[in-house]
Amino acid sequence: MFSAIEIYENLKKCEAFLEKHHVLSLATSSEDEISVCNLFYAYDKSTQTFIVASSDDTTHIQNILINNKVAGSIVLETKTIAKIQGLQFRGKFDLIDDKDYSKLYFKSFPHAIVMRPKLWQIKINYFKLTDNTLGFGKKLIWRDS
User: Fold this and answer.
1) Do 62 and 25 form a contact (C-beta atoms < 8 A)?
2) Domain ranges for the chain
3) Residue 120: which of 75, 74, 45, 70 has the closest Cα?
4) 42, 59, 72, 142: least surrounded by Cβ within 10 Å?
5) 20-37: buried (b, 16+ CB within 10 Å) or exposed (e) per residue?
6) pLDDT tens for the chain, residues 1 to 145
7) CATH fold of the domain at 4-143
8) How far apart are CA 145 and CA 127, in angstroms?
9) Dihedral of CA 100/102/105/109: which sign?
């Protein structure tokens, strides 16, 4: 079990990694369909929420309308073993319910305003950061309590 301090420190390290990236891979499923896609994201630290844009006619959105539980990852591409870093996450994918999320997304991606995209949120309940810069295979876990 992790102490409250370790949980907090793990979350901060996960969020520091997220600040360096802007594209996530998202896995969705329905009763008989699975899908993976890549999405640009903005991240809200105060609520552990990704904000993404996507169209209703995509397979991943059709899947989340049936099953809003999702998983995904964000990775640093490198061939140097000692520099490998990657974050896995799980959460619930829903329509955006906070206007501040829209502001955050368009601050990160101002060019998207002209497209008037539909915005969605992924409320995270689990992060696992693998960070070889902290030692080979080092894993940091955060779970929403």
Assistant:
1) no
2) 4-143
3) 70
4) 59
5) eeeebebebbeeeeebeb
6) 668 888 899 999 999 999 999 999 999 999 888 999 999 999 999 999 999 999 999 999 999 999 999 999 999 999 999 999 999 999 999 999 778 889 999 999 999 989 889 999 999 999 999 999 999 989 999 998 7
7) Pnp Oxidase; Chain A (2.30.110)
8) 12
9) negative
